[in-house]
Amino acid sequence: MEKFEVNILGCGSALPTTRHYPSSQVVNIREKLFMIDCGEGSQTQLRRSRLKFSRLNHIFISHLHGDHCFGLIGLLSTFGLLGRTASMHIYSPAELETLLQPQLDFFCKGIDYKVVFHPFDTNVSSLIYKDRSVSIHTIPLQHRIACCGFLFREKPTPNHIIRDMIDFYDIPTFAINAIKNGEDYTLPDGTVIPNSRLTCPSAPPRSYAYCSDTIYLPRLADTVRGVDLLYHEATFANSESARAKETFHTTAAQAAQLAKDGAVKRLLIGHYSARYEDESTLLKEAREIFPETIAAKENLCIAL
Fold it and tell me: Is 105 a residue of the active site?
């Protein structure tokens, strides 16, 4: 099975602590790296995770709070120092280009690569990236400022050839691609060999949803329904539910309820408030509702 991994670089919230870095993740799909958010220290964490800088060409910024984008100019500067020539594509709310371009002009003057901005509307779900392996849609969220999550969906792969059957029927090489894509094969004497005899199904496509930062939105259950992994912020415990509502954040229990309602396979919680010395309280509250919950931590790698 091809690689589909989520690497946690940072899972804290707005106030950096000695325990957690601000928000940042890297999704590795078939050795293509996609960064989601870029808080302070992301480039250091990228090295600690032993991820190759050269394979990162796309960065997705959920919203323009500093704990999700303050690391961006430093990372882009480092790419320049490393002699990067390939374009870097940044997908974000439209205001980021206005804020970042003057910094690029001042701190990154003379870099040998282009920074290409792709603004998106945070009010509607839209397809913002696709290639042969994956499609990425925005997920409108509700926070104190315009904010979106991201939904990664792996594209289905062709069926697997049963080599023994191909050899048995002496099927020529030129016909194999069509068979992989579901076609039957007709022998020279007119006998039709059904595709089910020549192939076996490939692994089902995988999916990952990233939802941070947001107030609890029950409607998201339909958006993330059935995903293999849901990352949802769990900034507060139940005891701070009023604070969560006031600041447009979510409790661990609410994140778990969303995962349960959406019938997701696994839940990953993060974006912890700095007030918690130990996130086990948040994990316990989530698991009481949705047992398949994992607590994010720096340099954690989850394979889908």
Answer: no
- Active-site hit among 67, 170, 184, 278: 67
Tell the CATH topology of 4-157+203-303: Metallo-beta-lactamase; Chain A (3.60.15)
Q: Is 187 exposed, middle or buried (0-12, 13-18, 19+ CB in 10 A)?
A: exposed
Listing from the earlier edge strand, what are the strands of the sheet with 229-233? 127-130, 134-140, 148-154, 207-211, 229-233, 267-270, 293-295
The reply to whether the predicted model has a pTM over 0.90 is yes
Per-residue pLDDT tens, the chain, 304 aa: give them. Answer: 789 999 999 999 998 899 999 999 999 999 999 999 999 999 999 999 999 999 999 999 999 999 999 999 999 999 999 999 999 999 999 999 999 999 999 999 999 999 999 999 999 999 999 999 999 999 999 999 999 999 999 998 888 898 998 888 888 988 889 888 889 888 898 898 889 898 998 889 999 999 999 999 999 999 999 999 999 999 999 999 999 999 999 999 999 999 999 999 999 999 999 999 989 999 999 999 999 999 999 999 999 9
Q: Determine the Cα angle at 110 with ends 107 and 112, to 5°.
A: 115
Going from N- to C-terminal start, the domains of the chain cover 4-157+203-303, 160-200
Residues in CB range of 293: below 8 A, 6 or more apart = 256, 259, 266, 267, 268, 269, 283, 286, 287
